[in-house]
Amino acid sequence: MTARHIIRRQIREARRRLNHAEQQAAALAITERVASTPHLAQATKVALYLANDGELNPHRLIDWYWSQGAEIYLPVLHHFSPGHLMFLRYDPDARLIANRFGIPEPRLDIRLLLPKQELEVIYTPLVAFDATGNRIGMGGGFYDRTLAGWHQGQGPRPVGLAHDCQQLPHIPTDHWDVPLPELLTPARHWRW
């Protein structure tokens, strides 16, 4: 078993141990951080995700952005380009279906599709991160492929969302990994 697999197993267990009250407090803290950060608070086209497997739940953040008049988009497994994500508009009454990983996503409707270049921020879930912006995801590479090129002005700004218990001193990286320029936890706002 590789170091990355061990990290994934240990950190996923740690975040699953967070109780409902801790998850709710984390969701509130993240929303307050975003609301007090002008470049994030002013975004009008934002990609978020629906929490799975103990991930930091952005449900309050989604509600807050809606209250500000922002459009929310959810990642959907790309139907024609395997290993990639596309983003569909998400509204409170959206019909969701489970993808092949059991994660709810909007039903494919081309009228709801937004090219990723039109998004301002992509909030990314992750398994673990370190103090230099490196991240480990679930292992499919979906976000790394989606975020490739953002630092050359070829896409929206990625911002990681995580619990504080997901931080490690060092993350082993591969050449395809895309480090984050910014990450929010309940206790801290990281920028690199």
From TrEMBL:
<keyword id="KW-0460">Magnesium</keyword>
<dbReference type="InterPro" id="IPR024185">
    <property type="entry name" value="FTHF_cligase-like_sf"/>
</dbReference>
<dbReference type="GO" id="GO:0009396">
    <property type="term" value="P:folic acid-containing compound biosynthetic process"/>
</dbReference>
<protein>
    <recommendedName>
        <fullName>5-formyltetrahydrofolate cyclo-ligase</fullName>
        <ecNumber>6.3.3.2</ecNumber>
    </recommendedName>
</protein>
<keyword id="KW-0479">Metal-binding</keyword>
<dbReference type="InterPro" id="IPR002698">
    <property type="entry name" value="FTHF_cligase"/>
</dbReference>
<feature type="binding site">
    <location>
        <position position="50"/>
    </location>
    <ligand>
        <name>substrate</name>
    </ligand>
</feature>
<dbReference type="InterPro" id="IPR037171">
    <property type="entry name" value="NagB/RpiA_transferase-like"/>
</dbReference>
<dbReference type="GO" id="GO:0035999">
    <property type="term" value="P:tetrahydrofolate interconversion"/>
</dbReference>
<feature type="binding site">
    <location>
        <begin position="135"/>
        <end position="143"/>
    </location>
    <ligand>
        <name>ATP</name>
    </ligand>
</feature>
<keyword id="KW-0436">Ligase</keyword>
<feature type="binding site">
    <location>
        <position position="55"/>
    </location>
    <ligand>
        <name>substrate</name>
    </ligand>
</feature>
<dbReference type="GO" id="GO:0030272">
    <property type="term" value="F:5-formyltetrahydrofolate cyclo-ligase activity"/>
</dbReference>
<dbReference type="GO" id="GO:0005524">
    <property type="term" value="F:ATP binding"/>
</dbReference>
<feature type="coiled-coil region">
    <location>
        <begin position="4"/>
        <end position="31"/>
    </location>
</feature>
<dbReference type="Pfam" id="PF01812">
    <property type="entry name" value="5-FTHF_cyc-lig"/>
</dbReference>
<dbReference type="GO" id="GO:0046872">
    <property type="term" value="F:metal ion binding"/>
</dbReference>
<keyword id="KW-0067">ATP-binding</keyword>
<comment type="similarity">
    <text>Belongs to the 5-formyltetrahydrofolate cyclo-ligase family.</text>
</comment>
<keyword id="KW-0547">Nucleotide-binding</keyword>
<keyword id="KW-0175">Coiled coil</keyword>
